[in-house]
Design a protein that fits this description.
Helices cover 41% and strands 28% of the residues. Helix 1 runs antiparallel to helix 3.
Length: 108
């Protein structure tokens, strides 16, 4: 595994569905748990057509360690359930789901 910082990205179509309070809460709880497990930062966003979430990790090993926890599995189920309850079809709507090595980043 790479020792470079990595970003985990997830993008899905909205298909006229709305982000509900349940979705927002499930995502924030998941991302907060990620922070407790070594994540350096996260963003949860939407535009008119997509939902976007990404996390930044010190390395892929730390990310994979979190992804192997029961907390990850349980919170992932909560996210899936909240999106399904809001009529998202995640199996069809996910556009992008990937981990990538960070080459350069800047934040102010």
């Amino acid at each position: 595994m790479n020792i470079s910082p990595v970003i985990r990205m997830w993008v899905t179509n909205k298909n006229n569905c709305e982000i509900t309070t349940e979705i927002n809460n499930a995502m924030v709880e998941f991302l907060s748990s990620a922070m407790e497990n070594g994540c350096n930062g996260f963003t949860f966003a939407e535009d008119a057509e997509r939902v976007i979430a990404f996390t930044i990790w010190p390395d892929e090993k730390t990310l994979e360690k979190f992804r192997s926890t029961d907390d990850y599995e349980n919170r992932e189920k909560e996210i899936i359930n909240s999106f399904s309850a809001a009529d998202f079809q995640l199996s069809d709507d996910i556009l992008f789901n990937s981990t990538a090595k960070i080459l350069h980043t800047y934040a102010k």
